[in-house]
Amino acid sequence: MTGKPKVGLGVIIQKEDKVLLLKRKGSHGAGEWSFPGGHLEFFETFERCAKRETKEETGLDVELVKKDPIAITNDLFNEENKHYITLYMEARYISGEPKILESEKCEDMGWFDWNNLPRPLFLPIQNLIKQKYVPYQKMK
Q1: Which end of the chain is least crowded, N or C, by CB within 10 Å?
Q2: Is the pTM of this model over 0.90?
């Protein structure tokens, strides 16, 4: 295989005891549930990327818990010949109802209990769970 890894960023948005997940469409991982997020752009800060991607995909404004990533996964999509380094940012829900704003990329979304996430999960989330990650506020 040739090429270079890309940098993805997932935003873990928590509302009460739930996290927001989007069902992917039209790309690798189609039909799988993932956090809002996308590619880190050239010269973009982690914070700016997290806020931009969340707004573009869901319409929500969020408040980041920290300005730096709270976890990193090394994600190898062998069948698609793709390699991503995924950074995770934690964010607090502020207000509003999430909307599907990129219907070519997302077919469904919802708030889910961390201990009862929908399946199938996108590979980066599977890898995050293997690291024993738990959202910043203890889930019930």
Answers
A1: N
A2: yes
